[in-house]
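Notes, Module 5: Reading structure tokens.

Key idea: the token line is not a picture. It is a compressed description, and you learn to read it the same way you learned to read a sequence, by spotting repeated patterns. We will look at two proteins. The first is printed below with its tokens.
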Amino acid sequence: MDNKEFAKKLEYRTRQFGITIIKLSSSLPNSIEGKVIRNQIAKSGTSVGANYREANRSRSKRDFKNKIQISESEASETEYWLEIINDLNWSKKDVLVPFIKETKELLAIFTSITNKL
């Protein structure tokens, strides 16, 4: 698979990730605390793909690296919120496992891209 094809597939994957995070966030408790975490995870989870898309349209290698690092950071933040949701038992473990797995995989991909630059 060449770089363009990889980028296109990763854009799709990160967009799907954002959609699933939004769906998860809408299932969180309607308490004040639930709304705070809902907002945080929705923002970080959708930012992963938004910044990756921006990276692919960057104007320089430095700009590309910066956007990739933001995607990496947002994936890490999303993982944090998923851990909080898990620790609070706000979602069933079997529901969270695929989210956590995908977050870790995306984090590994962005870390790998950053390390190659």
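Here is the second protein, with the sequence above and the tokens below, as before.
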Amino acid sequence: MKTLFIFGLGYSASHFARQAMAKGWRVIGTSREENPIKGVETIFFDGQEKIENFAQRLEQVTHILHSIPPHKETGDCVFNLHGEELEKLPNLQWMGYLSTTGVYGNADGAMVDENSLRAPSSARSQARKKAEDCWLGTNLPIHIFRLAGIYGLGRSIFDQVRSGRARAIDKPNHVFSRIHIDDIAGVLWASIAKPKVGAAYNLCDDEACEPVKVLAYACDLMGRGMLPIKSFEEAAKIMSPMALTFWQDNKQVDNTKIKQELGYELIHPDYKEGLNAIWAQENKDV
């Protein structure tokens, strides 16, 4: 039986876990919560202490997905605590590490691909680069997935508007790339079907754009008026340091490699199609 072990049952990994179970896979995952997903065998892991009987618990594991972000000071807890043990697993065929396109840093709006220089501009992204390098330096069947801004049902601009957290910020020609959770899972399955150890892939859709355009489209779908638009300079005055780091980098991300090397066709090739799908899901029973 195919057995998937997930480090960190977060938003994207949980979506993938449910798909794996639907395919008949056995799924084991770590969490700080007790049984967060029905059907997933859950192991408590807070990144501070080793998992007891680790080798025995993972002896039958064939695939691993690692989605726990590294700490900006202490690094990748999974690598630090279990990296050497993972290399000894007898049945492991594939391992995926969820990184971010933040490792490329700022490109002043230019296009970056998997061969571009990784020059992260924040401590958070610098930790991601270091974690990538750690995993690529092992003998594990590692695959790196650099994710753009993640969205999907339950985590979209619609939720931000409804909660009052959405902000209409105008910064002309400053673009962001996005990826729907359906396409994150889709690329992971494509990689499992066609593994290439040591490969790195950018996961994003075909249309990087300014966030204010996404917000305007969402408000239109919701039948609401557009929120008052503020300039970035004005909005930045009350932004948290964390929020400001998201506006440090301006780049377009090339996704050609997932299409050519993995033969992957995006389910949601742009934000409009992705938001239309979420809106339809949200309103299917209305």
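Summary for the second protein:
- The radius of gyration is 19 Å.
- Residues 123-136 form the longest helix (14 residues).
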